[in-house]
Amino acid sequence: MQTILLPPVVFLLTIVVMILLNQYIPVVRFWETHICWIGVPMIVLGLIIAQWHVRLFKKLGTNVNTFKDPDILTTDGLFRYSRNPVYLGFLIALAGVGIVLGSATPFLAWAGFGLLTNYWYIPFEERAMLRKFGADYVDYKRRVRRWL
């Protein structure tokens, strides 16, 4: 059986990779330590955005699992402005982690997470949404941008 990593697992693995890159290949220190704490509110904001929408899924009775067919076309919350607010929250939080770490190399992992999300997870989900919701999803895609 093929094992596929769920986005939250990849999110956590990305944090580990960011820390390792910062520890062992700290290329270009960006700022002094006291400025690095600016990343903390970004981490908190990103996690709040992601968790808020996971709770919204549960409230609406739809599944959160990327690899299961969707139950409901969710257009509430930040889904009015972004088709992917959970991934957006993850990226904001990861950017905050990169700022806290304070060097350039962690952002390689951040970019990797963004590319993986944009070119693999999201297209996979969008195909499932199109199969399930057809014209309603096409209309939603027309009205709401992928990220912001």
From TrEMBL:
The organism's place on the tree of life at top rank: Bacteria
Note whether Transmembrane helix occurs among the keywords: yes
Question: Mind telling me which GO cellular component terms the entry cites?
Answer: endomembrane system
Parts of the chain that traverse the membrane: 6-28, 35-54, 88-121
InterPro entries linked to this entry: Phopholipid_MeTrfase
Cellular localisation: Endomembrane system
Name the major location: membrane
Q: What is the topology of this protein in the membrane according to its UniProt annotation? A: Multi-pass membrane protein
Care to name a GO molecular-function term for this sequence?
methyltransferase activity
Would the keyword Calcium turn up in this protein's UniProt record?
Answer: no
Cited Pfam families: PEMT (PF04191)
Q: Name one GO biological process term.
A: methylation
Kindly state which keywords UniProt assigns to this record, in alphabetical order: Membrane, Methyltransferase, Transferase, Transmembrane, Transmembrane helix
Name of the protein: Isoprenylcysteine carboxylmethyltransferase family protein
What organism does this protein naturally occur in? Natronospirillum operosum
